[in-house]
């Protein structure tokens, strides 16, 4: 755990300077790229997705804003996932095939209601790549990491600095394959210290402007979490008071990680 109100705390072999999966916290990076490209005039939040992805049928009504806000009407997960390593078959060819029938995959009309969607963020990431003409990781580096001065964030961490959960006999458990089309929705790795730098730079210092649409809100609390099979993260802050926390765990439930982060912030705010 890293926070504004206590010394760094790690147990069970965790290390704030080794790369860990950050799961859906990746969406904060994707949303910030969207905000920065919009501010630069490279696209518009209300652009229909088919304007950038020509395989998408005309008339879906889905905009970049709706993808970022989880109101696109797309389901939580893309169809065709596997069981053991769910996102392994979801490569760029699979995404391209789904884009061509995107109008038939929605579960409700665009803009009608919020439904958290990893699939939607995969589509959003593809649209940003098409608009920027560069791979996703390069867009993140150009629009987010370099301006913030945060660099230990990647889709492919060095093997000797990667920290994964262990299974029988202390053997490292293989992480899910998330370097394909799902990458913008949840495939990045970062050190906890770098993740804390993203949190404070984006929410408190606001170095890159107002918080992106990808952040979640609960009253004055801004937050995002993330979970893979064996890792979970909660990052949250009260921008008005400057209190913040970053909790990352290997193993255990993602709900427990969220609860630990919220409880830490609650106690920190109570002492203000």
Explain briefly what this protein structure is.
The protein contains eight helices and eight strands, in the order ββαααααβαβαββββα. The protein has helices at 26-39, 64-69, 92-99, 118-132, 136-148, 183-186, 192-204, 254-270, and strands at residues 2-3, 20-21, 153-154, 189-190, 216-218, 221-227, 231-238, 243-250. The strands form two sheets. The chain has a five-stranded antiparallel β-sheet with strand order 1-8-7-6-5, sandwiched between helices. A three-stranded antiparallel β-sheet has the order 2-4-3.
Arithmetic mean pLDDT: 95
The percent of residues in helical segments reads 25-40%
Biggest sheet statistics? 5 strands, antiparallel
Tally of helical segments: 8
Report on the architecture of this protein.
By secondary structure, this protein is α+β, with helices and mostly antiparallel strands. It is 33% helix and 12% strand. The protein contains eight helices and eight strands, in the order ββαααααβαβαββββα. A hairpin with a 4-residue loop joins strand 7 and strand 8 (243-250). It is globular, with a radius of gyration of 18 Å.
């Amino acid at each position: 755990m890293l926070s504004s109100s206590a010394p760094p705390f790690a147990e069970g072999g965790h290390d704030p300077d080794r790369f860990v999966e950050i799961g859906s916290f990746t969406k904060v990076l994707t949303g910030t790229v969207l905000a920065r490209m919009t501010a630069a005039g490279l696209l518009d939040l209300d652009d229909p997705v088919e304007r950038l992805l020509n395989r998408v049928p005309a008339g879906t009504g889905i905009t970049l804003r709706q993808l970022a806000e989880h109101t696109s009407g797309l389901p939580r997960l893309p169809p065709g996932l596997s069981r053991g390593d769910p996102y392994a078959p979801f490569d760029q060819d699979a995404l391209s095939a789904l884009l061509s029938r995107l109008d038939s995959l929605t579960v409700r009309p665009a803009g009608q209601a919020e439904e958290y969607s990893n699939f939607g963020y995969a589509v959003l990431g593809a649209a940003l790549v098409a608009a920027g003409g560069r791979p996703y990781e390069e867009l993140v580096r150009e629009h987010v990491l370099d301006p913030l001065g945060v660099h230990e964030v990647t889709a492919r961490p060095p093997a000797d600095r990667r920290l994964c959960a262990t299974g029988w006999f202390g053997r490292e458990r293989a992480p899910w394959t998330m370097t394909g089309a799902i990458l913008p929705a949840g495939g990045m790795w970062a050190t906890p210290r770098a993740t804390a730098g993203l949190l404070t730079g984006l929410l408190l210092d606001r170095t890159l402007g107002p918080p992106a649409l990808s952040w979640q809100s609960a009253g004055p609390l801004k937050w995002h979490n993330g979970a893979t099979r064996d890792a979970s993260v909660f990052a949250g802050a009260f921008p008005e008071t400057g209190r913040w926390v970053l909790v990352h765990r290997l193993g255990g439930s993602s709900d427990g990680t969220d609860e630990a982060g919220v409880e830490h912030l609650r106690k920190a705010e109570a002492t203000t």
